[in-house]
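#struct-help
A.M.: can someone run this one for me? Single chain, 352 residues.
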Amino acid sequence: MAKKPPASGIETSGHDEVMDPGTAVEHSSAPQNPGLAPEHQRVTDLDEKEAKGMERRIAGFFLLSIVGSVFAAVAYVVFPIIPGDMSSVRVNNLMVGLGLSAALLGVGIGAVQWAKALMHGHELVEERHPTRGTEEARAAAVETFQQANKESGFTRRSLVRNTLVGALLAAPIPAVALFRDLAPADDPIARMKQTMWAEGVRLTRDPSGVPIKASEVTIGSAFHVVPDGWKDLEHHKLEEKAKAAVLLMRLPVDELNEDPAKSSWSYQGIVAYSKICTHVGCPVALYEQQTHHLLCPCHQSEFDVANHCEVIFGPAARPLPQLPITIDAEGYLVARSDFTEPVGPSFWEREL
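D.P.: on it. Structure tokens below:
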């Protein structure tokens, strides 16, 4: 005869003991809040003389930061980088690095020591409360800032405050010295306006350097072009390529809307434009054959090749400069002249 299971639906054996549900409640206890441990008093809390000494040490760190910032700027000038001399690079990096390290470590260590040794260190518990914008809340916020000012000693400890302000003001000095030196010594407009292109210079494929015949440029095709002789340069090779890079395309002649003054700049529908975007100098390399649009992949500036590469979308400020071209006696494409305007970003046209 089958044994009938208990009414509770839980099968038990003869050795199981049934525990009264109330027993567990009686034998368990809720965890007690241990509270906060006794507050540890800092030396600077107990001895005003120690607090004054710590204040002077912190001010010393901030003064070290000021000296480091000034030293980094001076070292950049006193120990210049001489082209081709790697020892000058190492000395310059060492001296500037020492100055910057002292500047950053000084203000960092000083700020940490200020917070750990002099600012209010009493333990507290802040209860959460709903965000509200009543007058009482605003008054409480003002009181909080006043209390923070009192506890940090920002107003009272003038030596620490003034040296910290001095360290923060001196911190940008190395950056000004270093970044100012990145500006070209001469007129940047003249640099960007003059490239390797000149009358009679052949258009060659990038990077092979093979000259291009007009018959090789079919409708819808696009060639990445550099001036003939670029590969033979010994100095400033990449800089010259960056300025002279060109995109060569061929459109149906009836789809070219040319300015009569520039009608001689193209050859049977073949046009050449600077590859350098007039926004920030990214390479314009995406050509849409059906729409005759050039797209810059960096910030999506779009240029209309059929209308002198005028800007039709994006942040670019002006059209891509056009390179006047024609053919020589052998049928190779050659430049009529250099670009008639600066290539690259429009900010080069601003006066220094």
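A.M.: thanks! The CA atoms of residues 98 and 322 lie 48 Å apart.
D.P.: also worth noting: The mean pLDDT is 84.
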